[in-house]
Amino acid sequence: MENQDSFVLHGNLIYTPDRNKFISLKDGYMVVENGTITSVSAEKPAMADSLPVKDCQGKLIMPGFADMHLHAPQYIQIGMGMDYKLLDWLDGYTFQEEPKFADPDYARKIYPRFVDEMTACGTTSSAIFATIHPESTDILCDILAQKGVRAYVGKVNMDTNSAPALTEETAESLKATEDFIQKWQNHPLVRPIITPRFVPSVTAEMMTGLGQFAEKYQVPVQSHLSENPGEIELVKKLFPQDQYYMSVYDRFGLFGQTPTLMAHCIHLSDAEIAIMADKGVYAVHCPASNLNLASGLMPMRKMLNAGVKVVLGSDIGAGHTLYMPHEIVRAIEVSKIRSIEHPEETPLKLSEAFYLATKAGGEFFGQSGSFETGWSADFLITDIPEYQQERSVDEQLQNFIYHGTAQDIQEVYVQGRPVKNTRK
User: Fold this and answer.
1) What is the CA radius of gyration of the chain?
2) For the segment 289-323, what is each residue's pLDDT rounded down to a tens digit?
3) How buried is 306 (Cβ within 10 angstroms: 0-12 exposed, 13-18 middle, 19+ buried)?
């Protein structure tokens, strides 16, 4: 089985084709051919006679998670500075740690640990901020590619209002970014994403160049938006001619002109929410990070009702875990807290939060994150406690999301190939 990407999987299957419902099959079958799902059924398929059967009876099988906003170099600062708010936290910790990645040997030491833990937590797709350093960013991409996981990786751009060790010369940064795009744009799993850190740390000249790259190479974009009131005021001061924070990105071709991820999106007016929906820009909800830095409670239900595409992110190191089930639970809890003051914003259901962490995020990469015909075979095989064996598959998933741990994940697959197997 280890070297094959065509097989029949037999076990308890569960997925969310849309956010309003689970589809589950106890002792169901999923046919995988050349890394792609070709059928899901309750009965043993005819293909089981010609393909090897991977017997996972008594195991829970679900799509892999998509972590749509995280900072790989901040892995080394998880849990630090949680008494600060955003801008002070960046100055006190992040902008002290990220310069260390100017040393490629440091990247070779830290990044494998980050990738190993991320995949051990069941994440099969991710959108990652690296640092400004081209060589270290390439090292991160190489590790992800060798591991066989799917990722968008950004060489970060910063040419103003940053720590001296993280302030680039604009032309050099743009040249390094274009080289990075050209090197990785055709890789089957690991690809480039344009990554201005956030509006305060990039000049108009930098954003002009990045917007041109997005159009020229049809590369997606990721950045931050309206995370913290102090940050929003700083953007107004730096770009007073723009009506909204998001208007700055939009003016330079970095807001929906190609697929775009914007993390946080907490403090948005109704008009801004409508613009996001109209432009198809993804809002990445990072509940742990937003709580840790006291940034605020994202109006998830309001955004979903307005038609905004919403996905989930761990946002390490402001977030403190790479284990996405914890973000699923926190997203639900944050929505319940908001509903106390905003009763019109009904809390998220588990099916909705699970969908955001699987199919909604996976679709940013193509057909990943669901068990549907033609979709990539990206999935997790997890243990089910003995005392949960008689429960329905839906209840087994509830128990895993709220009570399970990364140690319950036995195997992780991307495109039908094993990424992690803890039970050698």
Assistant:
1) 21
2) 999 999 999 999 999 999 999 999 999 999 999 99
3) middle
